[in-house]
Amino acid sequence: MCLAVPGKIVSIQVEEYLGLRRGQIDFGGIRKEVCLDYTPEALVGDFVMVHVGFALSIVNEVEAHRVFAALREFDLLEDLETPGAG
Amino acid sequence: MRYLDEYRDYDSVQRMAQEIRRVSNRPWTLMEVCGGQTHTIVKSGLQELLPASITLVHGPGCPVCVTPISMIDRAVATALLPEVILCSFGDMLRVPGSTQSLLDAKSLGADVRIVYSPLDALKLARSNPQREVVFFAVGFETTAPANAMTVWQACREKLSNLSMLVSHVLVPPAMEAVLSSPQCQVQGFLAAGHACMVTGYEEYFSISRRFRVPIVVTGFEPLDLLEGVLMLVRQLEHGCAEVANQYTRAVAREGNRAAQERVSEVFEVTDRAWRGIGEIAGSGLRLRETYRSFDAEAKFDLQLEDPTESPECIAGLVLQGLRRPYDCPAFGTRCTPDAPLGAPMVSSEGACAAYFHFGRSKDDADLYMPVAAANP
Amino acid sequence: MPTFTCPLPLPTRERILLAHGGGGRLTNQLLEEIFLPAFANTALEARHDGALLSVGGARLAMTTDSYVVQPLVFPGGTIGDLAVNGTVNDLAMCGARPMALSAGFILEEGLAMDTLRQVVFSMRDAAMMAHVPIVTGDTKVVDKGKGDGIFINTSGIGVVVAPGPIGPQSVRAGDVVLVSGDLGAHGIAILSVREGLQFEGPMLSDTACLWPAVEALLSAGIEIHCLRDLTRGGLSSALNEIASAAGLHIMVQEALIPVSAVVRGACELLGLDPLYVANEGRFAVFIAEKDADRALTILRAQSVSAGAVQVGMVHERKSDRSSGIVTLRSRIGGHRVLDMMSGEQLPRIC
Questions:
Q1: What distance separates the 2 farthest-apart alpha carbons in chain A?
Q2: Is B63 within 8 Å of C350 when comparing Cβ atoms?
């Protein structure tokens, strides 16, 4: 439905005419100007999800690691369930 | 690339798939709603990692597939107007209308340009004051904020030569349409994570309750999709039907308030026809009265014949997960990416194109384990 | 486009589309349905980048290519670099030492002389790098608005140095597939300056002369079964052309296919698949598995192929299926058919 790609905010400018927030976003080495008006609290260094030139959400770093903690839990559970064959 | 590569890691994916195999005892039919999710599933061959008892069915979440043929015809007719520059995302250029696609119109001299963002159409309007710039505004809730902001800006700049041909659709009504069909066998949904970035997932609680189906808001990388499947299967195996969020790194329960406000300022909900499915009440967006001057349908008064859909195309059944692409007699013969009969064969995320490109048919399974299966 | 209800083979389209030039399925349709029937001859039917001719005992290769890229100047090169390297590389893919080039220009009325100079100077430099003289040429001018600044056609003659036949017919089950470096740099460099898509970054076209790498393999006595430069339609189209011509099953490993971070970033952003993005200085090699390590060492000693890696293998085409096919083992271990692209790959949002 909608391709949204995570990129890192490298710089932020505010356009005088309409007061719109623009940011330079880095996607693994290439840079594109993106509108940051929908993520007013985003700062330089944050990662944002970008779709058709607009940042729509700030990547939650803590949550980003949650799935890997869950994966480690599977291993622990498995060791408990089959102690012998661990 | 950060926040992408980690969710494509081989070992993590195998570990998640193993956990799915461990907890699934009965057969389940699940639908991934969004075309982007379909793309990842088919492109990475993810189905192979799932137990055979789990069937993934592709949903209606691909704007290319569901945009009505009459809208394609209108875009083609508008593009052929001499004063018009028709801007569109690349996805829409090959979609067949009744007689032509936008690419066909381009070969007849129409000024059709591919843009990455609606803001690019705004720039074109500023730099071409003597031309009429029309942006083909298709997409789901994820794309609406971008189009809303573009219209809002153009209005502030009093630009009179930019307009939008709006064909916006909404996910929840489409899910309800799928669930209300008597032959629906879908038992759980992987909801479209990027649309929920904007809208949040409050709306899904009533659907989950009324139809007693679990709904998991899911991301787009292999590990996301597998974790989404795991969360659905766990609920189903325990008879639960709740809404849960797998894509917590990008989606908050209430979504993006600023985006929602701008969208409701510029657009209003309306009934929309979905290609292959038909009219669904309250399933789309249109420009509000105050922004009528930006509505290309109102601005360009065009007489269009009734749209004609290929009689053979079973897109509707495929989009609702009631048929697989290779169940269609025309699949791969009369209907191919070069000469698509219906939209799902055009978009690289349409179910039919995905099957054509990424896995011809059921009995091609021998392809995957070649004679000398050397796995360096 | 009539609605297709009768089972007759699809009629050729009534009109040329941009996609016919994209190097994918529609380009092949033109070749199979219009050009080959009209010009039927064995040299052409080999469907290889260059034609092989024998003239008084000498084995020659001949090739021609036209260049219509926009913009004329892009990060890492100009239409002039492409015009020389592209044709020299087609000769190299026949295992032929490039000997001489011709250059035909179609200039649009009003083209800035400075632009022409810049393009011609880059042709001069590329020809010098490839040690190939431009020995003949022609220039025509078209009315303003009837051209795109500059169109260039170059033809090339070379002397076949390779002992055995190089082409799909020499590919065998059990062969390995090598690529000479990271993929997609040229296509992304062009896209980065195309109107409506601008993005910045260290994109540079990979346009380069491939002959030094091919020559190194040949002089080391490596038995080369097939060579193919990975231009329009990228690695996938090249592999599909070879698989179908050879009637074999080529399987590649996504995890082994080299793509730079910059190209990956651009492809993620625009929804493109690097396996279909054009290159102008990369080629694929099909050789016996026993020669793989030696060939990789030789290639990596040449700057143009310093990033050479093995990406896959050739298998027998099982069961009754006659037509060749290409499959990919994905990064996560699943499989898919890597199909010939139909028309041009367009940036997508969903």
A1: 70
A2: yes
Assess if residue B376 is contained within a domain.
no
Nearest CB to B370: which of C19, C318, C347? C318
Q: Is residue B18 part of a domain?
A: no
Identify all chain C residues contacting A32, using CB atoms and an 8 Å cutoff. 198-200, 269
Which of A27, A40, A67 is the closest to B223 by Cβ?
A67
Q: Which residues pair with B190 in a beta bridge?
A: B32, B216
Does the distance separating the beta carbons of A52 and C201 come in below 8 Å?
no
User: Which pLDDT score is estimated for B248?
Assistant: 98
Dihedral over Cα of C337, C343, C345, C350: its sign: negative
Strand partners, C287: C176, C224
* Domain A5-81 class, CATH top level: mainly beta
Number of domains making up chain B: 1
> Is the CB of B234 inside 8 Å of chain C's CB atoms?
no
Q: Does position A68 have pLDDT exceeding 90, yes or no? A: yes
**Domain of residue B276, residue span:** 25-367
Residue B33 has pLDDT above 50, yes or no: yes
Asked if residue B20 is part of any domain, the answer here is no
Residues of chain C contacting B337 with CB distance shorter than 8 Å: 25, 342-343
Q: Cβ neighbours of residue C193 under 8 Å, at least 6 residues apart?
A: C71, C74, C75
ipTM of the complex, rounded to two decimals: 0.91
What's the mean pLDDT in B171-189?
93
Residue A64 distance to chain B (closest CA, Å):
5
Task: Enter the pTM of the model.
Answer: 0.92
B91 belongs to a structural domain? yes
Check whether C10 has a pLDDT greater than 80.
no
- Chain segment B97-138, per-residue pLDDT in tens: 888 899 999 989 999 999 999 999 999 999 999 999 999 999
State the DSSP code for C160: E
Give every strand in the sheet of C249-253, ordered side by side. Answer: C224-229, C283-287, C176-179, C309-315, C249-253, C325-329, C335-337
Domains in chain C with CATH codes: 1-36 (no CATH), 50-160 (3.30.1330.10), 168-337 (3.90.650.10)
Q: Which of A1, A2, A31 sits opposite C199 (nearest CB)?
A: A31
Q: Say which CATH number the domain at B289 has.
A: 3.40.50.11740
Neighbours of chain C (3+ CB pairs under 8 A): A, B
- Give the pLDDT score at B127: 96
Least confident range of B144-148, B275-279, C50-54: B275-279
